[in-house]
Give the backbone structure.
Amino acid sequence: MNFTATKPALFTVCAAAVLLAGGCATPPPEPPPEAVIPKTSFEEFQTAAAGLLDAGRLAVVGSAESKSEDLAQKRALIDGRRRLARLLDSKIDLLRRSAAEETGKPVDDPVFGPLNTIAQNLIRDQIQPLAPARTEKETISGTTRVYCLMELDPQVIVDRLMQEQALYSLLQPTRALALLFRNIETAEAASTY
Protein backbone atom coordinates (compact mmCIF):
# COMPACT_ATOMS: atom_id res chain seq x y z
CA MET A 1 0.00 0.00 0.00
CA ASN A 2 1.29 3.41 -0.95
CA PHE A 3 1.27 5.71 2.12
CA THR A 4 2.61 8.75 0.28
CA ALA A 5 -0.56 9.02 -1.75
CA THR A 6 -2.83 8.65 1.30
CA LYS A 7 -0.98 11.13 3.52
CA PRO A 8 -2.88 14.18 2.22
CA ALA A 9 -6.17 12.32 2.45
CA LEU A 10 -5.38 11.12 5.96
CA PHE A 11 -4.40 14.67 6.99
CA THR A 12 -7.67 16.04 5.56
CA VAL A 13 -9.72 13.44 7.44
CA CYS A 14 -7.91 14.20 10.73
CA ALA A 15 -8.34 17.97 10.27
CA ALA A 16 -12.05 17.51 9.54
CA ALA A 17 -12.45 15.33 12.65
CA VAL A 18 -10.78 17.97 14.81
CA LEU A 19 -12.94 20.72 13.34
CA LEU A 20 -16.11 18.68 13.81
CA ALA A 21 -15.19 17.80 17.36
CA GLY A 22 -14.58 21.45 18.15
CA GLY A 23 -17.85 22.45 16.55
CA CYS A 24 -19.80 19.94 18.60
CA ALA A 25 -18.39 21.09 21.91
CA THR A 26 -20.79 22.62 24.38
CA PRO A 27 -20.82 26.40 24.36
CA PRO A 28 -18.95 28.09 27.19
CA PRO A 29 -21.12 29.00 30.15
CA GLU A 30 -22.56 32.52 30.29
CA PRO A 31 -20.49 34.80 32.46
CA PRO A 32 -22.22 35.70 35.70
CA PRO A 33 -23.91 39.09 35.71
CA GLU A 34 -21.57 41.86 36.78
CA ALA A 35 -21.86 42.58 40.43
CA VAL A 36 -22.74 46.15 41.25
CA ILE A 37 -19.70 47.54 42.97
CA PRO A 38 -20.56 50.41 45.28
CA LYS A 39 -18.73 53.65 44.72
CA THR A 40 -15.84 54.34 47.02
CA SER A 41 -15.79 57.49 49.08
CA PHE A 42 -13.16 58.93 46.75
CA GLU A 43 -15.37 58.30 43.70
CA GLU A 44 -18.32 59.91 45.46
CA PHE A 45 -16.21 62.95 46.30
CA GLN A 46 -14.92 63.15 42.71
CA THR A 47 -18.51 63.03 41.44
CA ALA A 48 -19.49 65.80 43.87
CA ALA A 49 -16.51 67.94 42.76
CA ALA A 50 -17.42 67.41 39.10
CA GLY A 51 -20.99 68.47 39.86
CA LEU A 52 -19.75 71.62 41.57
CA LEU A 53 -17.46 72.38 38.62
CA ASP A 54 -20.40 71.94 36.27
CA ALA A 55 -22.35 74.32 38.50
CA GLY A 56 -19.70 76.99 37.97
CA ARG A 57 -17.77 76.65 41.23
CA LEU A 58 -14.11 75.79 41.70
CA ALA A 59 -13.97 72.39 43.42
CA VAL A 60 -11.39 69.67 44.02
CA VAL A 61 -10.87 66.64 46.22
CA GLY A 62 -7.89 66.43 48.53
CA SER A 63 -6.88 63.03 49.84
CA ALA A 64 -4.25 61.45 52.05
CA GLU A 65 -3.63 58.30 54.01
CA SER A 66 -1.64 57.53 57.10
CA LYS A 67 -1.56 55.26 60.11
CA SER A 68 -2.39 58.36 62.15
CA GLU A 69 -5.89 59.72 61.62
CA ASP A 70 -4.86 63.24 62.61
CA LEU A 71 -1.93 63.23 60.20
CA ALA A 72 -4.11 61.92 57.36
CA GLN A 73 -6.62 64.71 58.07
CA LYS A 74 -3.92 67.40 57.93
CA ARG A 75 -2.35 65.99 54.77
CA ALA A 76 -5.71 65.72 52.99
CA LEU A 77 -6.48 69.33 53.85
CA ILE A 78 -3.08 70.45 52.53
CA ASP A 79 -3.57 68.36 49.38
CA GLY A 80 -7.03 69.86 48.81
CA ARG A 81 -5.77 73.42 49.26
CA ARG A 82 -2.84 72.75 46.93
CA ARG A 83 -5.13 71.32 44.24
CA LEU A 84 -7.56 74.22 44.61
CA ALA A 85 -4.68 76.70 44.30
CA ARG A 86 -3.60 74.99 41.07
CA LEU A 87 -7.14 75.16 39.73
CA LEU A 88 -7.34 78.84 40.60
CA ASP A 89 -3.97 79.46 38.92
CA SER A 90 -5.18 77.71 35.77
CA LYS A 91 -8.35 79.86 35.73
CA ILE A 92 -6.29 83.04 36.11
CA ASP A 93 -3.84 81.85 33.44
CA LEU A 94 -6.72 81.09 31.07
CA LEU A 95 -8.08 84.56 31.72
CA ARG A 96 -4.64 86.07 30.98
CA ARG A 97 -4.10 84.08 27.76
CA SER A 98 -7.59 84.69 26.47
CA ALA A 99 -7.39 88.42 27.19
CA ALA A 100 -3.95 88.63 25.56
CA GLU A 101 -5.24 86.88 22.46
CA GLU A 102 -8.36 89.03 22.19
CA THR A 103 -6.61 92.34 22.89
CA GLY A 104 -3.54 91.56 20.78
CA LYS A 105 -1.20 92.22 23.70
CA PRO A 106 1.56 89.76 24.60
CA VAL A 107 0.87 87.43 27.54
CA ASP A 108 3.79 88.88 29.48
CA ASP A 109 2.63 92.50 28.98
CA PRO A 110 2.90 94.49 32.24
CA VAL A 111 -0.82 95.26 32.06
CA PHE A 112 -1.46 91.60 33.00
CA GLY A 113 1.00 91.76 35.91
CA PRO A 114 -1.71 92.33 38.53
CA LEU A 115 -3.17 88.92 37.66
CA ASN A 116 -0.17 87.28 39.36
CA THR A 117 -0.73 89.37 42.47
CA ILE A 118 -4.46 88.59 42.40
CA ALA A 119 -3.76 84.85 42.22
CA GLN A 120 -1.24 85.01 45.08
CA ASN A 121 -3.58 87.10 47.23
CA LEU A 122 -6.53 84.78 46.60
CA ILE A 123 -4.44 81.78 47.56
CA ARG A 124 -3.25 83.52 50.72
CA ASP A 125 -6.58 85.07 51.73
CA GLN A 126 -9.16 82.59 50.45
CA ILE A 127 -7.59 79.16 49.99
CA GLN A 128 -5.07 78.83 52.82
CA PRO A 129 -7.64 79.44 55.58
CA LEU A 130 -10.37 77.51 53.72
CA ALA A 131 -12.08 74.68 55.61
CA PRO A 132 -13.32 71.68 53.63
CA ALA A 133 -16.93 71.68 52.51
CA ARG A 134 -17.10 67.98 53.35
CA THR A 135 -14.72 65.45 54.86
CA GLU A 136 -14.89 61.71 55.10
CA LYS A 137 -12.51 59.12 56.46
CA GLU A 138 -12.25 55.39 56.17
CA THR A 139 -9.92 53.04 58.00
CA ILE A 140 -8.79 49.84 56.34
CA SER A 141 -6.22 47.54 57.96
CA GLY A 142 -5.04 50.24 60.34
CA THR A 143 -4.53 52.85 57.61
CA THR A 144 -6.82 55.87 57.61
CA ARG A 145 -7.76 57.52 54.33
CA VAL A 146 -9.23 61.00 54.46
CA TYR A 147 -11.00 62.82 51.63
CA CYS A 148 -11.72 66.57 51.71
CA LEU A 149 -14.02 68.32 49.26
CA MET A 150 -12.73 71.86 48.81
CA GLU A 151 -14.72 74.49 46.95
CA LEU A 152 -14.41 78.17 46.16
CA ASP A 153 -16.90 80.62 44.71
CA PRO A 154 -15.59 82.18 41.46
CA GLN A 155 -17.06 85.52 42.56
CA VAL A 156 -13.92 86.07 44.66
CA ILE A 157 -11.89 86.29 41.43
CA VAL A 158 -14.17 88.97 40.01
CA ASP A 159 -14.17 90.87 43.31
CA ARG A 160 -10.37 91.02 43.21
CA LEU A 161 -10.34 91.95 39.52
CA MET A 162 -12.67 94.86 40.18
CA GLN A 163 -10.13 96.27 42.63
CA GLU A 164 -7.67 96.56 39.72
CA GLN A 165 -9.69 99.00 37.60
CA ALA A 166 -7.27 99.30 34.66
CA LEU A 167 -7.01 95.53 34.34
CA TYR A 168 -10.75 95.03 34.84
CA SER A 169 -11.62 97.54 32.11
CA LEU A 170 -9.19 95.74 29.76
CA LEU A 171 -10.73 92.35 30.58
CA GLN A 172 -14.38 93.44 30.46
CA PRO A 173 -14.94 92.90 26.73
CA THR A 174 -13.17 89.52 26.66
CA ARG A 175 -14.84 86.15 26.31
CA ALA A 176 -12.83 84.79 29.24
CA LEU A 177 -14.38 87.28 31.66
CA ALA A 178 -17.81 86.64 30.13
CA LEU A 179 -17.26 82.92 30.79
CA LEU A 180 -16.27 83.68 34.37
CA PHE A 181 -19.49 85.69 34.80
CA ARG A 182 -21.51 82.79 33.32
CA ASN A 183 -19.84 80.45 35.85
CA ILE A 184 -20.88 82.81 38.64
CA GLU A 185 -24.47 82.99 37.35
CA THR A 186 -24.59 79.20 37.07
CA ALA A 187 -23.23 78.83 40.60
CA GLU A 188 -25.79 81.31 41.96
CA ALA A 189 -28.65 79.58 40.13
CA ALA A 190 -27.54 76.18 41.39
CA SER A 191 -27.31 77.40 44.98
CA THR A 192 -30.81 78.89 44.99
CA TYR A 193 -32.50 75.55 44.32
Observations:
- Residues 101 and 107 are 8 Å apart (CA to CA).
- The first helix runs from residue 3 to 23.
